[in-house]
Batch of 2 targets.
Target 1
Amino acid sequence: MRAYVYRIVGSLADTDDVVQDAFVTAWKQLPTLRDPAAIKSWLMRIAGREALSLVTRRSREDALDEATLPPSPHAQPERSAIENDRLSALARALDRLNNDQRRCWLLREVAELSYAEIAEEMDMTESRVRGMLARARASIAIEMEGWR
């Protein structure tokens, strides 16, 4: 949930707040959970709604292309710099996608939801999800060509 929310809000502090709010909301709505086996997708939907709500309320000053990860104490500085540059390039590529494509990609690649779960979350058909993912992946591949 944290990685998915972070990709939407672009700020570690906001991520923690959104995830906490999502768990509080989930706790309050627990009686509405129909299928306990679907808890992951249910929690991801709640977290996604909370994150999108935050993004619509705040200004765009915390753009995803400015996001960097804290340095690992075990990483070498050169390797950390390269990894941060690569992640920044990915964040810029994600920013260039339209909102639906970006959300589809994040739900699949970060949240690891199935096509059916993504279709349910985004209220669309599985074939449309597959098409949006294909276009998103193609755009990202073009943007990330220099990092191969």
Target 2
Amino acid sequence: MDKLPKIALPVVFTIIVLIILISKSAITIGSGEAGVLYRTFSDGVVTDEPPLNEGFHFVAPWNKVFIYEVRQQEVFEKMKVLSSNGLDIQLDASAWFQPDYAELGKLHQEKSEQYRERILLPAIRSAARSVVGRYTPEQLYSSKRDAIQVEIYEETKNIVEDQYIQLNEILIRDVTLPPTIKEAIERKLKQEQESLEYEFRLVTASKEAEKVRIEAQGKADANRILSASLTDKILKDKGIDATLKLSQSPNSKIVIVGSGDSGLPLILGNN
């Protein structure tokens, strides 16, 4: 009985050591993550094997696993850049990105877990300065925002494509100009709009006048043709037809044949 505690102590110690080793060896990688294995007594970061995927893994306790989020992520950046004429422009942008899954080991080995701060954000700033510097504040404020978004994306992508980073999109959230410049641009745009409206009214009025002129010309031409086609005989015949129709109406009247102008009948009513 006295020997039992002496036997149990090593067993308990062994169990505790095993529990510690198992706890250090068991790695759980969550959804949307991947692990980079670091072998302490070998070649360090493993770059020639796929990263550890989601789920439960056993790793030797003397090795390490660095976990990366491999889903699409978003990073925001506020920048002060210069326009083509040297004015300060504040640009608010965000980038959609994710690490290159297949090259995650190289990303960790060469860029580290701070790859966003060391690679991606500097690339966005560099591309934004380059692109915005090609445009005037007026272009940035009005017509070129979509264009600079595409150009910043293309230039940033060219910088990071061999840095093991997958760039999905660049979004320009806001372009802020100096207040005086913004007010001047808004006044100019308002004046241009008013000028376009005035020109539109002039064109509309001109078209309406042309329409009236054409209609009047058409009526004049019709009257001229009609006048040229009417003879005294035709007029007399039409007058006689009209007289006959009037004579058939129930109203009281006196018809004097041959008493009117040009020998047409004269109709006298009870009024």
